[in-house]
Write a structure and sequence with these properties.
36 strands; single chain; 3 domains; C8orf32 fold; 11 helices; 655 residues; eight-stranded mixed beta sheet; Immunoglobulin-like; Jelly Rolls; alpha+beta
Length: 655
């Protein structure tokens, strides 16, 4: 199907669904039948032909409840799209009742044949104490099938009017969201992502909701949002923040409820409201006042010996060594620092609030900072949304220098947050004054430097050499973690396998892993066998490859590139030219510089007496790059991969 024909069908389908609201379940329109491919994305394994959601309020059992209906039709384009046949519908179970999923209907369309999912094939799974799922699988799925289903959710939780995702992992021809909201329910709404609405309609409907026991019927704001020809959100595994920051969607958040009896309840608070609540919160505020407990349960010299910076570093190391992190964040519930201290393990909140108590006991003014991890999404800055935060760290200031501390990771150095915390900013909770936003500045000196020497022994058909690897900052932390999770002989074997079957490490030495925890050095002596014939030697000098393949593979990317921290990769290899040989050809030098020097790549070779020196450097100087930089960056990394994989030095024997 051509793009022009698809565009015409999209317009036809758009007009068709926009002009009427009749129930189309179980029937495919002529336009839907003709959409068999998605030319804008040849990799798509399925496409949403039609999707609609309707959210409104009804009085059920003398209680205003939220009704959410959903209807979708999905065309399967490839065998890899068969996973779209497995459906999970989540529902929430809370203290005030459970949501209910009703009227589930599902049909597999194969041309004009229809096969329904029987009711006894729909089952319920309990995920945890708060969430369950209804699940089913479409029958008789083939390439070309259309999978259609709909259902209705009845929720007693009016704050669960939480919006609509226009974008997903597969493209959509048309997606529509409708809402009818009583005027006494005030919701904040936000359009997220790079796509724009094709339909954005709103009007007021009088007397839309009758509530028993009141004399006034509510008027409603009737909303309609729609998009057509929506590309799939394609997620690259590396160098991005949480997809929730970028997927095109509309978000709703309940701000205020104006009850029919005239009372009001605010759900969206100010930061001053939050600050006051935190002071008395049993999980955070009260746990920050356990200074006396810690004074009585740690050595006195830990809190008194040395200047403030020395005391802070000693307390940081003590906390890291005393606690083991249980893998949970737990910042709003289940924070009990005394119990955690006694058991020597705890969640993020318990570990770092314990450290905050110790630092304050040592007369080091310390504040708690709330943040959101990289995979949790960026917190909203215009008003407090406490569910946006999922992490706690400590902030101290000594002689004008600010340090952010997280004692949950035993390998993490003083003043350097784990990579998961590098999410731009956090909220400092100053309980004596007002809270405020604070920018997270990552460690600046992050490097992986390789220094190598290689000599070719033609008499024994071998090469012998040495590598000195130097890691700094976050590169050192990543390497330390990798080594802590594996035995040394297994690590050496991994190095050998990553280079070639002819590469053998003859000795390995870990030289330095201290120096404030921000430096890591190792030395490898090695041999390479089977060099080649007597007259020509072909050698790729890049035995260690920083990027063996291009991490950027999308045709286009509509969300920013995020490296978390600035970093530099440097490779220097000195190769001794064997007696009786000459270097037949020198690779051409290359240099690529992106706009504003966001990334710089340099490659060159030089002769120094009987040596050829190979030099490569890649500097990534910005932590964040906008989508318009994606294609230049992708091309740069393509060149990097080509140089590291395809550079060949040819040594020719003299006649």
């Amino acid at each position: 199907m051509s793009k022009h024909l698809l565009l015409a069908l999209v317009c036809f389908l758009f007009n068709e669904v926009s002009s009427q609201n009749k129930d189309t379940f179980g029937f495919l329109s002529e336009a839907e039948r003709q959409i068999l491919t998605f030319p804008d994305d040849s990799t798509a394994n399925a496409v949403v032909l039609y999707e609609r959601g309707d959210n409104y309020f009804e009085v059920i059992d003398n209680r205003v409840q939220l009704i959410k209906s959903y209807h979708v039709k999905i065309r399967i384009l490839k065998h890899s799209g068969f996973k779209e046949a497995d459906i999970s519908i989540p529902f929430y179970k809370g203290k005030n009742g459970s949501e209910k999923i009703m009227e589930i209907r599902a049909i597999t369309h194969n041309d004009f044949l229809r096969e329904s999912v029987p009711a006894d094939k729909i089952y319920t799974i309990n995920i945890n104490e708060r969430w369950s799922e209804n699940r089913f699988t479409f029958p008789n799925v083939k390439v070309g099938s259309v999978l259609e289903y709909r259902y209705k959710t009845i929720s007693p939780y009016i704050y669960n009017l939480n919006g609509w995702d226009f974008q997903s992992n597969i493209p959509k021809i048309y997606s529509e969201y409708n809402a009818k909201i009583p005027g006494n329910y005030i919701y904040n709404r936000t359009l997220v992502g790079s796509l724009v609405l094709d339909v954005n309609d709103a009007y007021i409907q009088k007397n839309c909701l009758e509530v028993p026991g009141t004399t006034t019927n509510a008027s409603c704001e009737v909303l309609k949002y729609a998009m057509d020809n929506i590309p799939a959100f394609k997620q690259e595994e590396e160098f991005m923040l949480a997809p929730s920051n970028y997927i095109s969607k509309i978000e709703f958040e309940l701000s205020e409820l104006q009850r029919f009896d005239g009372t009001k309840e605010r759900f969206t608070k100010t930061w001053k409201d939050v600050d006051n609540e935190f002071k008395n919160d049993k999980n955070i505020g009260r746990q920050m006042t356990k200074k006396v407990f810690f004074e009585n349960n740690v050595p006195e010299e830990l809190l008194t010996s040395g200047d403030p910076l020395t005391r802070a570093k000693n307390i940081f190391e003590f906390t890291k060594n005393h606690f083991s992190w249980n893998g949970k964040y737990g910042i709003y519930t289940d924070i009990r620092v005394r119990e955690a201290f006694s058991e020597r393990q705890g969640n993020i909140g318990e570990i770092n609030i314990s450290m905050i108590n110790l630092l304050n006991a040592a007369d080091i003014n310390t504040h708690l900072m709330l943040l959101s991890t990289r995979q949790n999404g960026l917190p909203k800055r215009n008003h407090p949304v406490m569910s946006d935060f999922n992490y706690i760290v400590a902030m101290i200031e000594i002689e004008g220098q600010i340090y952010l501390l997280d004692a949950s990771d035993k390998l993490n150095p003083f003043g350097q947050l784990p990579i998961r915390c590098l999410n731009y900013y956090g909220r400092v909770m100053d309980f004596e004054n007002d809270s405020y936003w604070f920018d997270i500045i990552p460690e600046a000196n992050n490097k992986h430097i390789v220094r190598g020497q290689l000599s070719l022994d033609m008499d024994n058909d071998k090469a012998r050499g040495v590598f000195n690897n130097h890691y700094f900052g976050y590169e050192a932390l990543l390497k330390s973690k990798a080594l802590s999770e594996i035995r040394e002989n297994e690590y050496v074997k991994e190095i050998e396998n990553s280079i070639s079957q002819d590469f053998h490490v003859t000795s390995y030495e870990l030289q330095d892993q201290v120096k404030n925890g921000k430096m890591f050095r190792e030395r490898l002596d090695f041999e390479i066998s089977n060099l080649g014939n007597d007259k020509l030697i072909y050698l790729n000098p890049f035995l260690i490859k920083f990027f063996p393949k291009n991490p950027f593979t999308l045709q286009e990317r509509n969300y920013p590139i995020d490296f978390a921290y600035r970093r530099k990769y440097e490779y220097r290899m000195n190769i001794q030219i064997p007696p009786g040989f000459v270097l037949k050809e020198t690779p051409k030098p290359q240099q690529l510089i992106l706009e504003d020097k966001a990334a710089i790549m340099t490659f060159k070779t030089e002769f120094i007496k009987d040596f050829v020196m190979v030099y490569f450097e890649l500097s990534l100087n910005h932590t964040n790059m906008e989508p318009q930089s994606y294609q230049p960056l992708k091309e740069l990394f393509s060149q990097v991969s080509t140089i590291l994989n395809n550079t060949v030095l040819v040594f020719d024997k003299k006649e």
